[in-house]
Batch of 4 targets.
Target 1
Amino acid sequence: MDIRDISKINKIILHCADTPINKSFDVSTIRDWHKKRGWSDIGYHYYIKLDGTLQKGRDLWRVGSHTKGENTNSIGVCLEGGRNADGTPWTICTSQQRESLKQLLIALGVTFTGLQLHGHYEFSDKTCPNFKIEDLKFW
């Protein structure tokens, strides 16, 4: 279990679960998938279901396992979904997910100054969360 200095956290990295939007998965299911891969826990700190329900993942004081090379200074947030029922990428999140993410960003901004929101695609060859961060239109 990697403990970290949370004062070094400077970014939030947004992911998608790459699951079909016509099926619902709980944070416990994602945790089980990650543990089967040999991880100590779910890789993300937060998970937002399609209906906007915010679920806690890994504790913030623990290093995440969501973005290679960026885990010690970031918070991992995963959106349920990412794929249409036919398997093609789903290119936006639900309005409920967007609102929950916005409220989470506000809450985290109280604790952590200077946080920047990034998509996983900025740090890898993945397209996750399958849309550009600017498309969230929070501001």
Target 2
Amino acid sequence: MVDRIWVPSNWARGVLGDNGVDAITFRPDGPVMTNIGNLPGFKFINVGKYEERKATGEMIKAFDDEFAGEKDVWFILSCFNHFDKDHDLRATIRALELRDPGRLLFVPRVTTHKDLTKLYRFCNAFLGASRSEGWGLCHMEAAACGLPLVTTIYSAPSEWAAGHGYFLDYGMTKVKVPFFTSRDGDYGEWAEPNWEQFRHTMRHLVDNPDEAKQRGQAISDHVRRNYDWPVTAKYGADMIRRIAVS
């Protein structure tokens, strides 16, 4: 509802203004991470916070249900939650009671964009079946690196990845695990992905690696052409000009 936002520092301005992707760094061609072992076959990946909103546990469980006991299909995760000091990833995974946890590979949090791009290029598809995303930065960066995107057709990714993602249907559900306070106890709703469709989509990608690669290249071209930082900066500059003459 506002026309302008005033912030107290250049850092805060940067947080608001950097809504885009560094297309020079995040691109399909370039070096690949080599220090996490030789994993033949198809490799899914998820990067980001481990939390209910991002449905990390449900994605892991669906992957295990679909591929337990199969060789040459992997799920690589670089997940963290530094907002929850009590978060215990090992205990969380044990509680899922997976049939084949050996199909999962957990990578420590990657601290540089250069290494993150190497990790993305090591993999074949990004799994991001979030219940809601204000932007989906990891989704966009993985897509820029040439990974086909599996995500919910809801919130921000449904807009910027339109026509290029593998989208999941959903139903709206009440937020069960809030990450904010509410006086009346109403935390709103978010999207619950169709998990059966999620499993079918993963299977389709594994069975059709050439299509996955082609779709990955297409979404990379789309993201790097339309959401590169210079492009988003031009949008911002044009908006400032319109404000100045209004």
Target 3
Amino acid sequence: MTDAVLLTGATSGLGAWLAPRLGAAGLTVLVHGRDPERVAAAVAAVRDSGGRADGYVADLASLAECARLAAAVAERGDLRILVNNAGVGFGAPGAARELSRDGHELRWAVDYLAPVALTRGLLKTLRANAPSHIVNVGSVGQHPVDFTDLRMDRGYDGTVAYRRAKLALAAWTFDLADEVAGEGIRVDCVHPASLMPTAMVRESGYGTLSTVEEGGAATLRLILDDAGTGRYFEGTRPTRAHPDAYDPAVRAALRAATDEALRQGATG
């Protein structure tokens, strides 16, 4: 059986660049996206390049759909690599706050809660198939989290919303690496490159500083190489995330808020 990699957000930008190259590396690529036609096109791109691929459609703004996706992938039994790449960017300048289906601020839901929910649903499989690897696609842009206002009811800024979710993603990466230490599961977080010409960057109105190829090459290297575990990278360079990501009090508050959100999602 060929090892499989689940790549979320595989139908555009960084994910679309990675998918055929993961197939070329000999992995079965489980292509995730929200739109069935775009998922089918991404699967075809992997197969056209000689790789194996299957498509999965899910809206990661819904915790129920995260659970459904995890169950479908776990049922295969062949997952060895999980790449949490899907995300929502800053949004258009001045855009209003958006909420997820479960009532969470949208960037917190998709860029943070969804990776956690999906990973938790797949940990049993990843343990069974160890050595395995989880790569969280983060950002150098990280902002402290106000745990008293996770919905950002008291004020909204799309850039802050995105960056606080990415700080949470980094902090959770380190927590998870500690949790699974000794189980053969590597967990890392990477900032691929700054302001690549992706749809989310174009929507934000920011200029570009790097290429998708640069970010893709750095991410692909981390996915395929053994770079240790519990680490944060900017491109191919190991470095430090925001100080809050290492703060025990912040990580404890994040665990509590996350557990509560996922409990509500499971019963909602």
Target 4
Amino acid sequence: MRLRYGYYHNENVATMCRGTDKVMPRIGAARSYDRGATWEPLGVVVEAPPRSYNCATNNQYFVGGVGDFSVQVGVYTQDIYFFYSLYLRDTASQGVGVARLAWADRDDPRGKIMIWREGAWVPATVFRTPGGERYTYPAAVVPIFPTSESWHDGDPDADAFWGPSVHWNTYLGRYVMLLNRAKNANYDQEGIYISYASSLTDPRHWSKPEKILNGGKWYPQVLGLEDGSGTDKTAGEWARFFMLGSSRHFIRFRK
């Protein structure tokens, strides 16, 4: 029997903010014994720190939280890396962050993920309560791609990278990240960007994002064309380029 593991973006209505239907996203884990037909929940694995929301935000969807992410297993390590979007209250904690889970902890991930924060991997804080253990995850202070203009500063403008999608590119021998860049609180697109890294172990190795497309649509990603190996996690010189779940173009990577 071969187990499958999945990770999901989960949204809950921000009940702490009266009169709103906006939400707080978080990231959870699940496991399947039947090739994805059914799933067993393994709990929340990353969420925003307490009181890091802004009820007065102009963000169309979120008052805070973390989500809009992708997951990549390291080619040369036994770790799972989470590249996720940060919508926390403070501008310094908004942007694209990174978390890491040891492959050995994939069946019991709650409280095991470590957050990249100011040059180090920082664990969750454990609180023991009558109802069981609870975990508080640190904010990714100084995200790898920080937000230039806040989601929550009281005006409709924003300048923020979000929605990272990461794959290993066999032709380049590097990891590739595609990113959205929002220009306002409604998530209208300024463009689609690309970044590269030779390793996942140190998030400071990611290159400065470069624009590859003006405007565009949410959730850019690739799908490799290689028989038996091409997926959304592995691609080569040529791949299908997707936005909003559909593909009308190929993308070619150049050395």
